[in-house]
Specification:
This protein is α+β, with helices and mostly antiparallel strands. Among the domains are: 147 residues, Nucleotidyltransferase, domain 5; 71 residues, no CATH class. Helix content is 39%, strand content 12%. It contains 13 helices and twelve strands. The chain has a five-stranded mixed beta sheet with strand order 8-5-4-9-10. A hairpin with a 6-residue loop joins strand 11 and strand 12. The longest helix has 18 residues. Bound molecules: zinc ion. The site of zinc ion has 8 residues, from loops.
Length: 413
């Protein structure tokens, strides 16, 4: 029996020194998974008695149903030839690096190929799929962000000029010379391609005529993709719900606030009341007090929850004095700064470590971020063991880690 109080794993070096052979890793998992007694994983069996261990093949044989099983059966390690310690290092890194770890960096650390590292990293993230669930109470701050790659400055400028020129043509604001040049350009284009140069825009308008408002952005994206130099396609909306920490009258922490992150479409227009309200009703208790910014998607919040405080970050709206950033003090302070802080760290993770992740896989990265935030009070080794515990609960296949585009159930059909 291996002695492994969790505090042994204060650092990654301690982890590697303690579990320096595959046998010790297996024994460690046996202790963690079955409390030291290997138990058959066969259907309707779960026999814990006299299961023989085959040292060469590293598998157990059930004394009752005669089936083979190993400590990897029914976990994310099932079917993997990567040594267990490499898996543990990957899990340790994902559980404890504040900005995450990219698959390239991971592949160099544990000396596997990039593809293997990517698959391992996605399987570990997929094991966290229950992280963004649950109900929030007390004071809940809500905000949304438009994450993803920024347009390159030159391309952004080119797009801005293009848009401005279209507007100038529309309102008849072109100069004489300007118009001559444009007509020349259009004639050149027509000669070259045999089509009038404005065809693209008219086709788009025609297409959008019968499309409901909430479906428009995707089609617009498809047809204006070249104008945006394909970057806008990578964007995604993320909605964050964060529960305030609860303190008692003596100032002692009673309950640590939980963070939920959800993706909501690829276009800014997907953030609307139709998509937002089912999400809020599912994850927030009716007795909660909500704090948001002045986005119209939250207009209906006051009808479904105890109270709704609006923080408007702009002086220009109306002739009253808005709450710009915060008002009041202590527990009941009116502010959304806690969730703004989350965006600061989340975007540093996305832009600094991963550079880009697609809409399809966004859920995994949200789960990973939320896991680290929600377990912020634990030590490194406690967070490692918690994540390892989740990895032991289910087998994740390669089909499952491919992700889905339509996994978001709140979007209006
Ligand atoms: Zn059995």
């Amino acid at each position: 029996m291996l002695l492994h109080p969790m505090e042994n794993f204060k650092s990654i070096v301690r982890l590697i020194k303690t579990l320096n052979t595959e046998e010790k890793c297996i024994q460690f998992l046996v202790d963690l998974k079955w409390n030291g007694i290997p138990t058959c994983s066969g259907e309707n069996c779960s026999n814990p008695h006299n299961n023989n261990y085959n040292v060469d093949r590293k598998i157990f044989r059930c004394s009752k149903c005669q089936k083979n099983f190993s400590v990897k059966t029914g976990t994310i390690f099932q079917g993997s030839n990567v040594p267990l310690i490499d898996w543990f290092v990957a899990i340790y890194e994902i559980a404890n690096s504040k900005r995450g770890i990219s698959s390239v960096a991971l592949s160099e650390k544990i000396d596997v190929s990039y593809k293997t590292a990517l698959s391992m990293s996605h399987k570990i993230k997929e094991a966290l799929d229950d992280e963004n669930e649950g109900t929030l109470f007390g004071i809940v701050e809500i905000d949304e962000t438009f994450a993803g790659a920024k347009l390159n400055r030159d391309k952004k400028l080119a797009y801005k000029i293009y848009k401005r020129n279209l507007e100038r043509i529309h309102w008849g604001l072109e100069g004489k010379k300007e118009k001559e040049n444009r007509l020349k350009r259009e004639a050149k284009y027509a000669k070259k391609t045999g089509k009038p140069s404005t065809q693209k825009e008219s086709k788009l308008e025609e297409l959008l005529k019968d499309v409901p408002a909430y479906n428009r952005p995707l089609i617009e994206d498809k047809y204006t993709r070249n104008l945006h130099h394909q970057k806008i396609h990578y964007k995604k909306n993320i909605v964050g719900l964060i529960e305030r920490d609860i303190y008692n009258s003596d100032g002692v922490l009673v309950k640590q606030g939980k963070l939920l992150l959800k993706k909501m479409g690829r276009h800014k227009a997907d953030i609307n009341g139709i998509n937002m309200m089912p999400l809020l009703k599912k994850h927030i208790d009716k007795s909660a007090k909500i704090m948001t910014d002045g986005h119209p998607a939250y207009n209906d919040v006051k009808n479904h929850f105890r109270k709704h405080d609006v923080i408007i970050h702009s002086r220009e709206k109306g002739d009253y004095t808005p709450i710009l950033y915060s008002e009041g003090e202590g527990n009941d302070m009116k502010t959304t700064n806690h969730i703004e802080n989350i965006w600061c760290h989340f975007k540093k993770m996305e832009n600094g470590t991963y550079f880009h992740f697609s809409y399809r896989h966004t859920d995994k990265y949200l789960n990973e971020f939320a896991f680290r935030y929600n377990n912020r009070s634990l030590t490194n080794s406690q967070r490692f063991s918690k994540l390892l515990g989740k990895c032991l609960k289910k087998n994740i296949t390669n089909e499952e880690i491919r992700g889905t585009i339509d996994s978001y159930s709140y979007m209006a059909a």
